[in-house]
Amino acid sequence: MTFRSPIQHCRACGTAVVYRLPDDGDTRQRAVCPACNTVHYENPLNVVGTVPEFADGRVLLCKRNIEPRWGKWTLPAGFMELDETTSQGAARETDEEAGAQIEMGPLFSLLNVRRVGQVHLFYRARLLSEQFNPGYETIEARLFTEAEVPWDELAFRTVKETLEHYFADRKAGQFGLHCIDLE
C-alpha cells in the first residue's frame, strides 16, 4: 500500500486539480492545476528525534500524552520544522518532550516508513543531567536499562527498531549507522 494524501485544490489559485503527468517530462502523476499549471508535489515528512543515553547506558523514554498512541512509550521525536536542520529538530523535540539537557551525537538510525510517507531520523545524544522537565505532550520521562524497557508498550515500530539496534551496538562496543526500510 502506498501512502497518498490526495491534493484536491490548487494552493496557488484554488482551482480543482487533476492528476496527470506534468508537461515538464516528469514520470510520475502529480496534482496539476488546469487553470494556472502549478504542479503540486507530495513528499515524505521527516520525523526527527534522539536516543538520549546516560553514561551508564540507560536511555530516556517519554510516555505520550497525545494521540496517536496515548500512554505508550517513545523516544523523544516529532516532525521536523522548516528552517531547521535534522539535528536541530531532534534537539528541539528532545527539549519540548522531555525537557532534557543533551549534547547531540551522530546520526544513529534512518528508517523509511513508506506506507505513511515518513522518514524517521534518530541521533544519539548524551544526557548531561538526570533531571527532566517534560512538556505537555509527555506524561512522564524516565531512564530505562535494556531489561526495564517496556518493549510491549512502545508507541512505534521505528522506536523499537532503533532501541534494539542501540542496545545491540552498545553490547558490541561499536555504534554504527542503521538504515532500515519498514513496510
TrEMBL record:
For this protein, the record's InterPro entries field holds: NUDIX_hydrolase-like_dom_sf (IPR015797), NUDIX_hydrolase_CS (IPR020084), NUDIX_hydrolase_dom (IPR000086), Nudix_N (IPR029401)
Q: Which CDD domains match?
A: NUDIX_Hydrolase
Q: A Pfam family this protein belongs to?
A: Zn_ribbon_Nudix
> Know the name of this protein?
ADP-ribose pyrophosphatase YjhB, NUDIX family
Question: Gene3D superfamilies from the xrefs?
Answer: 2.20.70.10, Nucleoside Triphosphate Pyrophosphohydrolase
Q: Which GO terms describe its molecular function?
A: hydrolase activity
Recite the UniProt keywords alphabetically.
Answer: Hydrolase
As cofactor, the record names: Mg(2+)
Where is each Nudix hydrolase domain found?
40-167
Which source organism does the UniProt entry give?
A: Acidovorax soli
Please name the PANTHER family in this protein's record.
NUDIX HYDROLASE 23, NUDIX HYDROLASE 23, CHLOROPLASTIC
